[in-house]
Amino acid sequence: MHMSEEELIKEAYEARKMAYAPYSGFRVGAALLGKSGKVYRGCNIENAAYSPTNCAERTAVFKAVSEGETEFEAIAIVGDGDDYLSPCGVCRQVLAEFVQPENFFVIMVGKDYDYQKATLLELFPASFSKNFLEKD
Ligand code: THU
Fold this sequence. Notes:
The chain is an alpha+beta fold.
């Protein structure tokens, strides 16, 4: 990795400060580490119509891709509360588009820098991917 897990977690805590979560009150921050070594911060951004809400992880991915980075090493995610923040299914699918699931690490932060680490393959096995779209 280009940086330590603790350094990436610190970025996720910083990202959480920008959360816009007036409806749920649940703030989430994510820090996505690109293969270039650059970190993309994301926060959840809610909406009065609810369904347009964007999770912190997707905010980070979309920021990175829109800036030209499409290869990633890891993501750290921190929510409010003490539970290890586990990414939602939609975010797992979005991450799977851009990474090799067995080589990409999801760092799920709990209380005070305590974390659990898993590969995306462990969290999201047998996923649908672009391989299915290839015609014979
Ligand atoms: N949320 C995230 O940002 N990431 C997740 O992985 C889970 C949920 C946000 C969406 C919503 O703004 C709030 O947390 C409550 O669901």
